[in-house]
Structures are given as structure tokens and as C-alpha cells.
Predict the structure.
Amino acid sequence: MNDHNTERACRQCGGSLEGKRANAEFCSYTCRDRARRQRDREAGKVTYVRKGRNNPRPGARKYDRGWVSPSGALTLVSRDGDRAVFKCECGSYKPLSIRNVATGRTANCADRANHPDPRIKGDVIAYTTAHARVKAEHGPASDWRCACGCDRQAEEWAYLGTDPEPKVSTHADSEGSLYSTDPEHYAPLAKPCHRRFDVWQAQRRTGLPLALVIAETLAA
């Protein structure tokens, strides 16, 4: 080992070169790479790009009053931690997650009176989507009493058969069932009442003997 190495210092950090080779200039690979990047910057060359997120996380960035969302529809009014109250372009105020707004996941206040649900495309919807629309409009059926007057707790939304232009389901689980895209043509019913009502509707619609309709319904 050369004693004169103990008197030399790293060109980058000034640390000791004790134990290094006689021609060593840096104390570590880190200092060597930092020195190389510094030379490249001075020469106008960019050889290093910081890895990770291109944009800072919402928690690391200041989202102050007046900040506008990427969609342009939401303006930050007041902040409380990771959430903030935003004013929507429709004029309503709503507390939302800053992260969801900043990443574009939340584009507006979602008030369906002013911002139609993009997932709902008019009358071109399936049987299950129609029932989901009813639930979104009126809430779960379990929040209601059975509409038949039996005073039981309702469990399901039932199509009343009152739509002049009903749809016919082609889904495997509900094939042949009639449904409506308008939530106003549904009523909350208990399961037994719903089953009896469907049997009655099927018999009225097809004109088949009631016993045959019941047998087919129970076999479904």
C-alpha cells in the first residue's frame, strides 16, 4: 500500500483516498459519476435523466386556491389535507380528492342534472344496466316498502310492464325478459311478490295456461 494515497483527497467530495490505488482520483463510484455528470453539464451535454414520476405527487405539490383542474371544469376553493372544495363550471361546490382531480380521474362535480353520465348512452343499454339506472335514480329497493301493499320490505326493482316500447333482454341470465330504460316504469317489490307479478305478466302477455307459465318460471 502506498502511503502517499493517505495524503490525497477525492476530486469530487474531498474525502480520503486511503486504501485506494496509486492513480485513484475518486473515493467511490458515486463521486466518479457525479464528476462525470458535472463535466457533461459544463460541456452542454445531458447524459442523465432523473428516474421516477414526471410530475410531482399531489401531496408534494402545492395546490392552492385558484388552481384549475386539467379538465378546466374544477377550480380549487379551499384545501383540507388531501381533499379540497372545488367549484365546478356548472356553479356547484363539492369536496373532492385532490389526487383524483389532478390525475384527471375526476373531471367535474358529477351532478347528473348538469353533467350526464357518459356511461349511459340513451336507450341502448342492457337489462342489468337498466336496473342499475333505476337504483341510481331511486336508491336500493330495500329502502322502500313493497309496492303491492303487503307491508313487507322490498328487495328488488320490478318492471311494471307499462312502457309502450319495452326492450327484450338477450343476456343469458335474463333472456326474453322485458325491461324499460326509463326508471319510472319500475316499482319496489318483495321477492315473493316480484315472482308472482312476473308470472301474472307472462301469462297475460303470452296467453298460455297459468300452470304452464308457473312451471316454466320455476324451472328458469
About this structure: The two ends are 90 Å apart (CA to CA). The chain is about 25% helix and 15% strand. The beta strands are 74-80, 83-88, 93-97, 156-159, 167-168, 178-179, 186-189. The CA atoms of residues 99 and 105 lie 8 Å apart.
